[in-house]
Specification:
With 772 residues, this protein is an alpha+beta fold. It is 45% helix and 14% strand. The two termini are 22 Å apart.
Amino acid sequence: MINRKVVDLASELALVALTVAVTFGFERIFTDRSFLPDLLLFVLAAHGLAIVARRAGFSTLISVLISAAGFVIVANVVLFPETAGSVLPTRETFSLLRADLDVAWQTFSAESAPVDALRGFVVVAAVALWWTATLADWAAFRLRSTLEAVAPAATIFVFVALLGAGQSPVLHATLFATAAGVVILTMRAERQAREEVWIASGTSAGLTTTMRVGTAALALSVAFGVYAGPAFPDAGDVLLDPSTWDNGPQTRSVVSPLVDIHASLVDQSRFEMFSVKVDNPDTDRSYWRLMALTEFNGQVWSRSSNFDDIRGPVGSDVDPSIPRRLVRQEITTRSLGGIYLPAAYEVNNVISSQNVALEYEVATGALVVQRESEAAAARGFTYMIESAVPNFSPGDLPANAADGLDPEFVEPLTALPPTCSSDQARSDGCWSGAVTQLAEEITAGATSDYQRALSLQQYFLSGSNFTYDLDVALRHDVNSIEDFLFTVKRGYCEQFAVAFAGMARSLGIPARVAVGFTWGDWNESRKEFVVRGEHAHTWPELYFAGVGWVVFDPTPGRAPANNSDITGLAPAQLNFNDQANRSDSAAPDTVPNTLAAPRPTGGGAFIEPESVTTTLAASGGTGRSGGLSSRNLLRGLAATSGLALALGAIPLAKFGLTRRRLARVVDDPYGRSEIAWDDAAEAMAMVGVAPVASETALEFSRRAALSELHLGPTRELASALTILRYAQTSDAPNIAAGAVAAAEDIVTTCRAQVPRRRLVLASMDPRRLRPV
């Protein structure tokens, strides 16, 4: 007779494989695989909880409640470790979740795949996959319906295929088709084993035939689809093109540049991101700018940008009366992830880009890779550009920065969240009046907006007010600005820049936050600047009428190279190791171009990316800088804790099920004897002598007597069980009591011969859960 436990286990594993195949399909809508570890953890946890709850005999409603609670715990610990003070979410967790979902919706509305794996997208995908796993398990093993078991996964697969890019369509279709076929095949085998349980002599042969024929048919159908399908005419035509569903072919929603400031400064501190060749390293060094963020909603700095194809000269956002100096740059990207390209502000002419198509937005000075060239650019390439760097002087700046400007231009650049009322909580994302009051106090003696900007800059640069520190919380909302100014007073460039920009806006000065890199280390042997993760930087820019955007820098130890007349600061670039303006003639460390690009996750302008290898060991191997990241540590602890909880729940579930089974047969001597036989059989199996379905209890007892092992009163148990099964007796209660006593003796005798380690493993084996 077929062992149904084996068939059930095969069906469960097949369902898990199907959901895993669907999970891999999400790489068609994301730019990298940074999402994959998180989603796979969700899939395994969802299936594991569904299996344990079902095998424990819980009802569908209780199982769903257990699954929902499990999702909340896993999502809180894995996706929101910064707020996970315990396994349960906090109010701050829900605030971050709301902000993440808002950012994800904005990106979904404006971009077509592939997009960055924002945390909001990962949350939605995790919900879908978790529900898919739960629903599939219910349909397969409670409803016993193959179609309903496969349908949830098929729905997500089709949805992702319609939205996603054409990355490896045959591979993903093959994985899904194979996994779905295995599910259908194993469920057919499970049904056959269940329905033919009384035909012991034919079940094995019939099941073997079913598996052979089914496997052959599945292999042929998949092979036909893989090799013959693409050969059909028009096989590559797109049925639906979601890229045409956005707000226009040239619109991209920009949550942040695809550079994580904190991760670059710390996790990727010594990685070479790109290099820049210039004609004169003394005069042509500059902040290599990626992008400017112009919108602040209280939770995140963002910008929706409209890019235009760029070939040759481009427009300018600097007033033509301002003198400018031409700087030619030959830039080679190496470990720089994302679509944004560094350049000195502002780009004047694109000379060459190795056939990589580029786009540019004058309003933010952002140079990006076009969608169709992203794959080629990801491998690294060289482009040559010319920038016209403005030479501002204080005399060029009007007393009122917004004087004569169009209100429609000024309003979004001075916009802040509504000011908090006296009864509003900090978590509402409103703008603190205390911040505005501080800005007014700092600038009370200034007579122009330029002097106000200098006063704010000097306030932040004062060592008695603030300390440069990389080890601060990764928060970026209005609450973090208030904490930075009044409580923490420690931070790195991002905290200084966003606080400066927000305070300037509160004074009516148009402001934005720029992101990029300082000029890097000059490598004499290579005759170029080498820019590493430690040079990642963000700074504020203020707009002055009749001039344009002017750079200020409130971060201690850093100042632009060509703006000293305005800032009053000597050029400086405080590096990760606290050495300013360090020259490095040695060849820099490099990493493969497959290094994962940092990803914004929606909790703010810049959020910690997936873990990456961050240093090169002296032997040439890869190492890890600064130890295990907090995110990976929490993920490992979450996985370990989840596994421990699941394994610990199995013995408890067994105990509860045993109590429930005994309670149901307390007045049934026949039922008590059958439970006693099951317990004894399980104990004897651990020492290698187990009954088989083809023999009676007495036949087994005779075989057991021939064993060299001492098993206990197997003859007495078999005799009592046989009488209760097949004879009519008035002494059933006493016979059942004898069966129970014999079984208890057998269990005690057998368990005494089994190593403790094996007993522990057996107690945590979910396959031994028997439904009531």
